[in-house]
Amino acid sequence: MDHDSAVREAAALLARSRRVVVFTGAGVSAESGIPTFRDALTGLWQRFDAQSLATPEAFRADPALVWGWYEWRRSAVSRARPNPAHIAVATIEARRPGTVVITQDVDDLHERAGSATPVHLHGSLFAPRCFDCGQPAPPPGPADEPPDGRRLEPPRCTACSGPVRPGVVWFGEALPEAALRAAAEAAAACELLLTIGTSGLVYPAAEIPHLAARAGAAVVQLNPMPTPLDPVAAVSLRGPAAQLLPRLVDAAG
Ligand code: BV8
Ligand code: ZN
User: Fold this and answer.
1) Which domain holds residue 50?
2) Which of 44, 77, 173, 216 is the most buried (most CB within 10 A)?
3) Residue nearest to atom 28 of ligand 1 (CA)
């Protein structure tokens, strides 16, 4: 299917769908200048593998190294702006009330683009909590300067003086039950699932588009690269989300 007919096909699917799920990964924030998960390893952290740094073990071993990485990412997000893909997602929600946005991203760009209640399967950079007792901690103020490549001692919990950790889901940690349940229910009930900018490699989140397809939904994928989701996608649009998604939403009305 050539690109233009793929866009027409995808637009026709969106045009006739009322129950829509939008499932996003780090690629939807790429054009806001936010490095994807794997690319977010520079400076002091470049010698690490993301999967080894995004773990409770890494935080226990060197809280300042891991907290510094997340504070660098949080300061990058605070300086970034939602891109046309985030805005197009919010337009889909405005035109199709009941649309459910499910994201693996830990940034707040969907919210800042107008998405009311995105389901964060992997938590958020803006909900830190105590590593020991779990008490929520106030997000530290905007990191005054991007601590790129610097260790930063995490703040201390006011209840038990344990170290404060980022409010994200690390490898080996369970996803928030309510979020996963809401995502699975939405995927099982939708007519169309748009998967945007995800490599489809990390489970159980990556199961969501497969679940929608098994339940009979059409899956449309937007990603510059092939992914393990290709086989379940009725249409795969190859390209950057900030270009493709607004075109799709305009064509679908
Ligand atoms: C769990 C938060 C159990 C942190 C993240 C072996 C086989 C199968 C599974 C496993 C296994 N070994 C271990 C596991 C389980 C593991 C897993 O799936 N590992 C994978 C790597 C094999 N999963 C877990 O550990 C999960 N927990 O299983 O717990 C359990 C159960 C009960 C009780 C206790 C324990 C937890 C996983 C969550 C990890 N946290 N994020 C943080 O952000 O720091 S995952 C993180 O990586 C992201 O959230 C994202 O989901 C994932 C991938 O990152 P990226 O590749 O950057 O992003 P993405 O996938 O979204 O891909 C980017 C895409 O964008 C690319 O395709 C690219 O082509 C595209 N793109 C680029 N530019 C653009 C674009 N697209 C559009 N436009 C553009 N411009
Ligand atoms: Zn505590």
Assistant:
1) 35-79+125-168
2) 77
3) 172
Sign of CA dihedral 32, 198, 225, 42: positive
Q: pTM value?
A: 0.96
Last residue of a domain, one of 143, 168, 193: 168
Give how many domains the chain has, as a whole number: 2
Alpha-carbon gap, residue 74 to 146, rounded angstroms: 9
**Which residues lie below 8 Å from residue 35, measured CB to CB, with a gap of 6+?**
26, 42, 76
For the chain, give the mean pLDDT.
94
Ligand 1 atom closest to the Cα of residue 200 is 60
Q: Residue whose CA is closest, atom 45 of ligand 1? A: 202
Kindly indicate the confidence band of residue 144, based on its pLDDT and cuts at 50, 70 and 90: low
Mutation test residue for ligand 1: of 168, 171, 201, the one with most atoms within 8 Å of CB: 171
Query: Distance from the CA of 252 to the center of ligand 1, in angstroms?
Result: 30
Mapped to the 3 state alphabet, what secondary structure does 138-151 carry?
CCCCCCCCCCCCCC
CA distance 222 to 206: 15
